[in-house]
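subagent[fold] <- orchestrator: predict structure for attached chain, return tokens only, no commentary.
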Amino acid sequence: MQPSQANRWVSEPRFAPYLHAAGGDHELAVELYVWNAQVAASLMETLHHVEVLLRNAIDAQFTPVDHHAPATRSWLCDPTVLNVYSRQRVDETIRRVQRGGRTATRGRVVAGVSFGFWRALFDRRYQQLWITHLHQAFPHGTGDRREIATIMAALVPFRNRLAHQETIALRPVNGHHETMLKLAGLIDPDAAT
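subagent[fold] -> orchestrator:
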């Protein structure tokens, strides 16, 4: 990738952090850019596993679990469980699933709501839900909702940086990886392993 190509393909503002980190050495900046993409892909794989583990651990707390049942007949659409804002996010997911020509089952909606939806379940406004249901998804945690809220608050922005192909190579990547494994371990230590 030549300098003019980097500006066209990546854009000058997006390539600038790599060029700066490489001390102006264009070839080294390209290597750093490629390495960043490889590290991001690897971290996204780990995050994929952790996100699936998280959402299934949470969903399992609302029995009976029937992944084929309509989402509208589950906790996802129950106003006694979720507030208006969270239900709106569920409704958006239901519409997206239906636009794709599929039935909006509980399983599809659980898989389709955003990582931000799951993070919001650990906000203070869901303290009662934590007490009645959510804490059970984390049998290896402290039992304090804030423990999970803190982890999720760190992971959501990191996930967004990964998803939007932002520069992560200059960030504490190892710490983010450890945070993902910590969350998995609070659900099931074998999953973290």
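orchestrator: received. Logging for downstream: Residues 3-192 form one domain. The radius of gyration is 20 Å.
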